[in-house]
Write a structure and sequence with these properties.
Distance between the termini: 24 Å
Largest sheet: none
Shape: globular
Radius of gyration: 21 Å
Number of strands: 0
Order of helices and strands: HHHHHHHHH
Length: 244
């Protein structure tokens, strides 16, 4: 098997793993949504709300107000301008810029559709922290996972120094988690809303990145995808036939 075929096989494995992961999270989201509609998450929500409320203080209120803004629409839009400039102007990565828009913009539209489909009321309404409209899934949680998750992908994809990659993964992952916690702490969402936002965000982000990687692979590889797949699977097929 030549080197190009081996690389093609690896690419297909990565794509299949991505699609499998997205399918798994779709199932998880469906199960969570079903339990929410059947009012089976009350205990789960109540326990987590009680645990998080145990650290309430005026100082913590200020910290959480700041953290929740890191996942707000205005803040992510502002940062998106910078990301698009880097992708489109500095890196001249038109496909990266396009799928960044697909991931972030499409994720925002999907959030709105899901909120109106499930129509779950919020635990409290507070316009100062962008807590209006329906609650399930959490828009802050879903949007932050897609946005900061895409940044993690870009850092890893551009092969930065190992320490920077690890710092980005842990740092940005921490931001995603803290934004979700802040939404619960401030009474904007139930914990199950935040969990649903993370799951839905993961689904959309993975599908966007799988599509981007597929196109990038076709662009840089001289081997056509179907031909490569045939070459990868041919030995497996022959081995099965021989055993039969």
């Amino acid at each position: 098997m030549d080197r190009e075929t081996k690389l093609s096989g690896v690419a297909f494995i990565v794509l299949l793993v991505g699609l499998g992961l997205a399918t798994l999270f779709i199932v998880l989201f469906a199960e969570l949504a079903d339990e929410m509609l059947d009012h089976e998450l009350a205990v789960f929500d109540a326990v987590l709300i009680q645990l998080i409320s145990a650290v309430e203080s005026s100082g913590m209120d200020t910290v959480m107000f700041v953290i929740t803004e890191l996942g707000s629409v205005w803040f992510l839009v502002l940062l998106s301008v910078g990301v698009l400039w880097i992708l489109g102007v500095k890196m001249r990565d038109k496909w990266g810029a396009l799928f960044y828009l697909v991931a972030v913009g499409g994720g925002s539209l999907l959030t709105v559709l899901l909120k109106h489909f499930f129509s779950r009321e919020r635990p409290s309404i507070n316009e100062t922290i962008d807590a209006v409209g329906y609650s399930f899934p959490s828009g802050h949680s879903m949007g932050s996972l897609i946005f900061y998750g895409f940044l993690i992908y870009l850092v890893i994809r551009t092969r930065q120094k190992p320490w920077l990659q690890w710092a980005s993964v842990f740092g940005l992952s921490g931001v995603i988690v803290l934004i979700g916690i802040s939404r619960i702490y401030l009474g904007a969402h139930f914990p199950s809303d935040v969990l649903a936002g993370y799951i839905a965000g993961t689904i959309w982000l993975v599908l966007s990145l799988v599509a981007l990687e597929w196109i990038q692979w076709q662009k840089r590889s001289p081997v056509q995808p179907v031909a490569a797949l045939r070459k990868v699977l041919a030995p497996v097929y022959r081995a099965i036939i021989e055993k039969i």
